[in-house]
Amino acid sequence: MSTQDLLTGGTPAIAGASPAAGPRQVWRRLRSQRAALAGAIVIALLVVVAVAAPLLTALEGQDPNTYHDSLVNSATGGVPIGSFGGVSAQHWLGVEPGTGRDLFARLVYGAQISLLVAVGATLVEVAVGVGVGLAAGLGNRLLDQLLSRTTDVMLALPWLLFAIALIAIVPPGFPRPLLLMLAIGLLGWGGISRIVRAQTLTLKELDYVAAARLGGSGPWRIARRELLPTLTAPVVTYAALLLPANVVGEASMSFLGVGVQPPTSSWGQMLSSATTWFREDPTYVLLPSGLIFVTVLAFTVLGDGIRTALDPRAASRLRVGTGRKREAQS
Amino acid sequence: MKGYLLRRFIGMVSVLLALSLVVYAIFYIAPSNPAQLACGLKCSPAQVAQVRQRLGLDAPVYLQYARFLEGIFVGRDFSTGTGVMHCNAPCLGISYRTGEQVTSMLATRLPVTASLALGAMVAWLLLGVGTGLVSALRRGRFTERALTTLTLAGNSLPVFIIGLLLLIVFCSVLQWLPFPTYVGLSQDPQQWFWGLLLPWTTLALYESAKYARLTRASMLETLAEDHIRTFRAYGVGERHLITRHALRGALTSVIALSAIDLGTMFGGAVLTESLFGLPGIGRLLVYSVQIVDLPVVVGVTLVTGVFVVFANAVADVLYAVADRRVVLT
Q1: CATH number for A233
Q2: Is A135 within a domain?
Q3: The domain containing residue A194 runs over which residues?
Q4: Within chain A, which residues score under 70 in pLDDT?
Q5: Which pLDDT score, from 0 to 100, does residue A329 have?
Q6: Fewest Cβ atoms nearer than 10 Å: which of A197, A204, A276, B228?
Q7: Chain A residues within 8 A (CB-CB) of chain B?
């Protein structure tokens, strides 16, 4: 066996960092937490609902975009006829005030947008954050300074304002859900990049990375082969906390009218039209609000559970919304 | 201290210059065609070319940016086709839609946003520090639990949901308040107060959990320190210990955090302003984005950047002033 083999053949298991738990062990630890399990079940349900939206609405016999003028009272400006916003056997959750569109169908299709944008934006954040963090950690002093200062500025700026501003310059034909993912994701990677940089700085001093470097591995190879496997746990943890923030992000932008465009339905958009109906039809406010709340809560407890499962030493009691995630917006 | 301030100032200016460059590049150069936007969709290519020349968009990119900066520092002139329009010193451009100077558009919106932000700060300090105080001193009692639950619930909901729930409760169910409408402070202070009460409460509920946590942690930390034990042994009263030592220690970080939050909010509390129909900077941004009024969008973005960077610097200095142990280097 040559020296070369000895140096590059070392497995990450000899790393000085905490021994990484196998996926099976992580899964077991995750399952043993009741709150996290409940969160996971709620998320799974939401995903099923979002994917099966056409089926569910077919089952109800409605679609999200048909106007039902007969179901709203035109004398009062369009308040749904019937109690709780016009709940009936045909319209399970009532109809939208003003237009009479079926609320169940619109909420179910809204779940699609909410989950799609939140997951997509989180993936963008992870990709950019890991890239920038690794480059800052492995690069020379100048590059590190430049990237770190940029990260600081990204973290300090109110991302919602800048995401809204970005919408202005994109041609109107650009698909909105994709645009929202990019607008939220390209402004929210600061946290991940900071964590990845810090971890990289620690890891690159460890013997196994030094060995890889001596063995002739370039920064690319070191990043991919030696660092990324160890970085998975902190990145997944942080990403899980970004998900609920991004659900709120999409809802916020749609609430402001710069999110998905009609007739596509989104929970945030419903709330913005609900501002004129809250007196006459409180159900119309409470349904999307409740869904946003449940989604955010489920993602948050699941994220907390994932953190505990990946790093039991750092585990703490459940801390809902303790500001650990990216700063939300007012 | 002087050296620190100077260096900090230079750092601030360079961050802002970099920000202005990036913002300018993204908005004026990258994908869109500003002349087309300024002219409108129905313009013929010849008209667009004319507008491009009038706005100076035909010049090389670096020159355009230099003129933009010149406008900010000394003002610049725009040709209006028939005459010349002067744009005064902090010139951020001229609205494509109304022909108004962006700076003056911002100036008319600022009092609204300032009213909202300052009032909200008072409210979140009262609620947040109050909750923190109660939870440090009265752990496990009913008041503590109620306040902690309230602030935590407020923190875990998006701000527009809190606002809508408050509207349902106070305007619709209880009917204690009319739907808030904004009236300027100078016009009618009483109306101003009632109009902003719900927006303030909304932001306070949303922000105060952070402050409660900070106050509580910092007070408990101070109260556990050795010199407090010594004071206690010497018979110094508990009230004196709390107000003079524990609270004072907590206030440092609370003030610093407030400065940052206030700075961010001055750039527009977009969601709150939109929900309650307050004509502030955030609403201006959303509206300008919808009608694609680039100079206004760029103006709001840059001004927000200035507020945030400035607030962060102020927070650092306040930190050092309030806590002698912090040395600024």
Answers
A1: 1.10.3720.10
A2: yes
A3: 38-329
A4: 1-21, 312-330
A5: 65
A6: A276
A7: 149, 153, 156-158, 160-162, 164-171, 248, 251-252, 255-258, 268, 271-272, 274-275, 278-279, 282, 285, 289, 292-293, 296-297, 300, 320-323, 328-330
Looking at residues B230-247, what average pLDDT do you find?
84
The predicted structure's pLDDT at residue A251? 93
- Judge contact between A77 and A98, C-beta under 8 A: yes
| pLDDT at A112 (0 to 100) | 92
Q: What is the ipTM of this complex?
A: 0.83
- Is A30 among the domain residues? no
pLDDT value at position A131? 94
A72-73 and B84-87: which strand pairing?
A: unpaired
CA–CA dist A26, A308 (Å, integer): 9
Determine, yes or no, domain membership for A216. yes
Cα–Cα distance for residue pair B300/B53, rounded to 1 Å: 25
Picking from A149, A320, A330, the nearest residue to B159 by CB comes out as A330
Going by C-alpha positions, the residue among A115, A116, A125, A117 that lies closest to residue A236 is: A125
Number of domains present in the structure of chain A: 1
* Residues of chain A contacting B172 with CB distance shorter than 8 Å: 278-279, 282
**Topology of domain B106-324, CATH:** MetI-like fold (1.10.3720)
- Higher pLDDT, residue B275 or B32: B275
Res A327: pLDDT: 55
Q: How many CA atoms lie within 13 A of A281 on its CB side?
A: 31
List, in sequence order, the alpha helices (H) in B183-293: 189-223, 226-233, 238-240, 247-266, 270-276, 281-290
Distance from CA of A321 to the nearest CA of B (A): 5
pLDDT digits (tens, 9 = 90+) for B175-204: 888 788 888 888 888 888 888 999 999 999
Domain assignment present for residue A132? The answer is yes
Q: Which of A17-26, B279-288, B320-329 has the highest average model confidence (pLDDT)?
A: B279-288
When CB atoms are compared, the residue of A149, A252, A289 closest to B271 is A252
The domains of chain B are located at 2-102, 106-324
